[in-house]
Design goal:
By secondary structure, the chain is mostly helical. The protein has 4 helices and 2 strands, in the order αααββα. Helix 1 crosses helix 2.
């Protein structure tokens, strides 16, 4: 199976939903529409061929085992990208 290449934006959206506990609160924190957050998560799940959140039986999405396993990696990638941007800014 060939996996897609997730964007940094999709990873940041994934992190925001996990940290804020829902699509609506993540959307508010990111200054986006809930539909944009939901679409970003759906795209990321399609790219990775994994379900990251269990949306059944609860108003709040719950990380699946796969989602929980990938969250630390997503944070590491986002942190590394932030460090790269900070370094680039310091060189100006």
């Amino acid at each position: 199976m060939k996996l897609g290449e997730p964007s940094l934006d999709h990873l940041r959206t994934f992190i925001a939903v996990a940290e804020h506990g829902g699509f609506g609160s993540a959307a508010r924190a990111m200054g986006r529409a809930v539909s944009a957050v939901s679409y970003g998560i759906a795209q990321l799940e399609a790219e990775l061929a994994l379900s990251l959140f269990d949306r059944e039986g609860s108003r709040r999405p719950v990380l699946t085992p796969a989602g929980a396993g990938l969250l630390a990696e997503a944070r590491a990638i986002a942190d590394a990208a932030d460090a790269l941007l900070a370094k680039a800014r310091s060189l100006h």
